[in-house]
Amino acid sequence: MITLTNLGKIFRTELIETHALRDVNLQVNEGEFAALTGPSGSGKSTLLNILGTLESFDSGDYQLDGKSVKGLSDAALSKLRNEKIGFIFQSFNLIKDFSIYDNIELPLRYRGLNAAARKQRIEQALELVGLHARRDYLPGQLSGGQQQRVAIARAIAGEPRILLADEPTGNLDSLMARQVMELLEQINRQGCTILMVTHDPDQARRAGRNIQIIDGQLHDSTLYDPLAQHTA
Amino acid sequence: MEQLFYYLKVSWFSVKRAPLPYMLTVLILSLGLGVFFSNATFYYRINSDPLPAKSDKLFFPMMLLVPYQCSNCKPPSVLSYSNIAKLNASDIPSAKAAMYSAGGYLRLNSEQAPTPVNVRITQRDFFSMFDVPMLHGSIWPDNQARDEVLLSKATAEKLFGRTNVTGQQVLLDDRLFTVIGVLDQWQMLPRLYDAFNRNYLNPTEDIYLPLESGYDYNYLSNTNSSTFEDADYRKLATDGRTKAIHQLQYWVQLDTLAQQNAYRQFMANLVADEKAAGRHPSAEANQLVMMRDIVSYFDGESGDIKAFAIVTLLFLLVCVFNASHLSLNRYLSNQYEFSLRRALGANRSQLQVQLLVDMGLMSTFTLTGAAIIAYGGIKLMNYLWPANSLFASWDLQLMLALAALTLLCSYLVTLYPSLRASFGSLNKQLKE
User: Most buried one in A37, A66, A119, B361, CB count within 10 A?
Assistant: First the structure.
């Protein structure tokens, strides 16, 4: 589903060049739940942003569903983001003066769905994250965990094939973090591919696969057996 | 339509998020546009064409006919009675009228206190040439002297308390005249038939008297008269008709290019005849000026209004710059939302539509503010320069132009900030 070939990214300033990613080769199959781990500044978020087409790359190739995203126009990239990719951010990124309903509606608005179709998808997403009763609340009226569940609802309302999560539990306490992880696992079981940046080794182990990045290079790509981890 | 309401809702939330900077932006822009609108109103009125269908057909002939040598002399802006008689001999124009203005005192009877009035002393074609609307009665049947006058609507109402006063008698400078017609509401703006010495800024006259009667009763021009020979300008009935007392403006209507060329030739022949008769040794210096060029011919363009227009335009530019700066800050503080929308699938075109709706909302507030400030500005200018108050009205065309300018300024104010916001780095904003 996702194929990266010799992908490289360099951040340039007037004085220095920083190789954020070097010759990254990666294959992610449909339905996988992969964790991206590594020390701070190693290039995890950069890789996730490139996968989400929020950032460009300098060398190599990135193919999504067998098609290269290189050279796609702004409109084509926006369409791709809107239809195939869902984002979950560490700081939730909800619009504070929009209701929960309006926040979840955001990506659906840009897909051109009619009001009835949007409503149906939003209600399904709210059911899944267990916040249907709070659809008219403002984000500020919810706890951090609830806000992240709203962000997840927004990410899945468009029924994307890939979910990109950048430290989704980074701002949550352990109980809420566990609830969010359970929710992501539930979404993954329904067939959605998930790539998640995390610093938490426990969460990385819960994902089916751990992709480790150090100094912009893919060092290890280990397939964990979650069952084996739990029984160990 | 549903999407438009959504965009409006997003704009409104954006306003509510930071109302003070938004209000300040609108206020600055309204101030710049309001001050500019006030001046633009005067500028537009003063430079407008009062007779767009005819202004290229009405001409002001001027001839230099002097019995002495005069090199590089311009023809005088007014003609003598005898000049007019010679020009009137031509059948080339479709219409022709000599005229001048004078002052007088009007009342109904000798018991009443006299009211000062402006009198236009002219010939019958004046009314058709300048499209003067009639409310009651008719104009003079010919150009003969007669004790008959036409009144403006306002004068009739002021004097009689009504407008249908045909057949009534009035005392003009204690001479009895019969009212044969009342004009409908008429205000030629600018009053280009009397363009010399910036008289075109004045209101139209209160009362209209036949030219021959004006000469018979020795009505002197109150604007411009001159002579180059021993003539008593107070004796218009005699010296005014026979000697070189120049005080008459003259307008002709020449509908076609052929008529215009023929009339130029007629004027040239007339001067040649005078030269042949030994009455005009100088070179020919005839002028035939189109009505739409008459103000610039007389250098009558209002310099102070022009200068003020430039100042207000510069002030508007400063306001647009400042408003743009404020707008930039507002958009940069909202850049996170732009980035989020783009991350969730909005393309730049969709963001630009959102920004156009933002602009539309800002234009609505700004236009309202600017109209209020402009109205206040016009009132202030009328108070400071009452002579220009005729030029303070708005029409649909002017309002549409002002609305378009508001849209343009609002667009300029939102253009750069919106481009900055929509081309910002997505990942950076969303990570913060």
Answer: A37
User: Looking at the structure, do residues B70 and B10 belong to the same domain, yes or no?
Assistant: no
CB contact under 8 A, B346 and A110: yes
- Chain B's closest residue to A114, CA to CA, is B2
Are residues B137 and B279 part of one domain?
A: yes
Q: What is the pLDDT of residues B186-218, one digit of tens each?
A: 988 888 898 887 778 788 899 999 999 999 999
Whether residues B255 and B359 share a domain: the answer is no
| A chain contacts of residue B350, beta-carbon cutoff 8 Å | 78, 110
Q: Provide the edge-to-edge strand list for the sheet that holds A59-64.
A: A17-28, A2-12, A59-64, A67-68
Chain A nearest C-alpha distance from B343 (Å): 7
The whole-angstrom distance between residue A190's C-alpha and the CA centroid of its chain comes to 16
Whether residues B155 and B187 share a domain: the answer is yes
pTM, to two decimals: 0.71
Tell me, letter by letter, the H, E, C secondary structure of B186-221: CCCCCCHHHCHHHHHHCCCCCEEEEHHHHHHCCCCC
Asked if the structure places residue B346 within a domain, the reply is yes
CB B184 within 8 A of CB B134: yes
Indicate the burial class of B431 (C-beta count within 10 angstroms; 0-12, 13-18, 19 or more): middle
- Tell me the shortest Cα–Cα distance from B26 to chain A, in angstroms: 22
For residue B25, give how far its alpha carbon lies from the nearest alpha carbon of chain A (Å): 22
CB contact under 8 A, A106 and B344: yes
Nearest to B371 by CA among B23, B26, B30, B25: B30
Range of the domain at B263: 64-285
Query: Residue A89 is nearest to which of B16, B347, B430, comparing CB atoms?
Result: B430
ipTM of the complex: 0.87
Residues B271, B310: one domain?
no
Residue B54 domain flag: no
Q: What is the mean pLDDT of chain B?
A: 88
Instruction: Please indicate, yes or no, whether residues B68 and B203 belong to a single structural domain of this protein.
Output: yes
Chain A residues touching B348 at Cβ < 8 A: 74-75, 78
Gap between the terminal Cα atoms of chain B: 34
Distance from CA of B360 to the nearest CA of A (A): 21
In the predicted model, what is the mean pLDDT of residues A14-18?
85
Task: Determine, for residues A87 and B341 on separate chains, whether the beta-carbon distance falls below 8 Å.
Answer: no
Please identify, in words, the CATH class of the domain defined by A29-58+70-231.
alpha beta
Nearest residue, CB atoms, B345 vs list A49, A111, A115: A111
Contacts of A98 in chain B (CB under 8 A): 13
- Same domain, residue pair B195 and B155: yes
Structural domains counted in chain B = 2
pLDDT exceeds cutoff 90 at A150 = yes
B241-291 pLDDT tens trace: 888 888 899 999 999 999 999 999 999 999 998 888 887 778 888 999 999
